[in-house]
């Protein structure tokens, strides 16, 4: 009786061993297991790439809308059609699409005596608070200038980002937002009503 039980146990162990060996050699689910291991990082990276593409698109839209609207200042139409920064922001907003919340736009327009006085247009440090966040109250100037004046128009927009840990360092994205700027620098056409700049 004991021999029969022992033989039965041996057969069971042999079958279990055969199943384990077959499972170890099987490759039918290998692709699914490998994909499960890399799916989360792959999807995260894919979403980050999409976000970066949307940021590039939004930056181009903001720059184009800024340049198109700045033409109103350049041609002298601004004195009647966009007499204030909020009116200019509305004109910019009319040229933007669903990627922007127009209430977040900030507009600045300044006149200069010559182009060398303009300075570095890529720097945004003067418009940020001590923590590095964009401070909309520091955008205060709206000057359209007279004919032949040099004018620099800047439109600021704090764009929210979700994958800041992968695409950006913490210093460049305080509060989870990237500060986008649309810039147009030009000399006004010599329209009537000229004077000092």
Key terms for this structure?
single chain; 197 residues; alpha+beta; three-stranded antiparallel β-sheet; 3 strands; 15% strand
Please tell me about this protein's structure:
This protein has 197 residues and is an alpha+beta fold. The chain contains 5 helices and 3 strands. It has helices at residues 2-25, 30-74, 78-81, 85-94, 164-167; strands spanning 106-112, 150-160, 177-187. The protein has a 3-stranded antiparallel sheet. The longest helix has 45 residues, at 30-74. It starts with a helix and ends in a 10-residue tail after the last strand. The model has no long low-confidence stretch (mean pLDDT 84).
Concise synopsis of the structure shown:
The chain has 197 residues and is α+β, with helices and mostly antiparallel strands.
Mean pLDDT: 84
Number of strands: 3
Query: How would you classify the helix and strand content by structural class?
Result: alpha+beta
Number of helices: 5
Low-pLDDT stretches are none
Spell out the blueprint of helices and strands.
Elements lengths: L1 H24 L4 H45 L3 H4 L3 H10 L11 E7 L37 E11 L3 H4 L9 E11 L10
Antiparallel strand pairs: 1-2, 2-3
Helix pairs in contact: 2-4
């Amino acid at each position: 009786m004991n021999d029969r039980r022992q033989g039965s146990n041996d057969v069971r162990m042999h079958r279990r061993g055969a199943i384990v060996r077959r499972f170890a050699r099987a490759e039918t689910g290998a692709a699914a297991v490998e994909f499960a291991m890399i799916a989360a990082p792959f999807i995260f990276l894919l979403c980050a790439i999409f976000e970066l593409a949307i940021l590039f698109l939004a930056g181009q839209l903001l720059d184009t809308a800024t340049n198109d609207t700045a033409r109103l200042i350049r041609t002298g139409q601004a004195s009647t059609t966009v007499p204030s920064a909020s009116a200019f922001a509305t004109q910019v907003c009319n040229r933007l699409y669903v990627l922007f919340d127009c209430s977040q736009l900030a507009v600045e327009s300044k006149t200069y005596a010559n182009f060398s006085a303009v300075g570095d247009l890529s720097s945004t440090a003067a418009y940020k608070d001590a923590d590095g966040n964009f401070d909309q109250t520091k955008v205060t100037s709206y000057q359209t200038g007279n004919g032949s004046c040099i004018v620099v128009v800047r439109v600021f927009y704090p764009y929210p980002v979700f994958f800041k840990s992968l695409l950006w360092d913490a210093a460049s994205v305080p509060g989870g937002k990237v500060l986008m700027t649309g810039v147009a620098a030009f000399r006004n056409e010599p329209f009537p009503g000229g004077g000092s700049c």
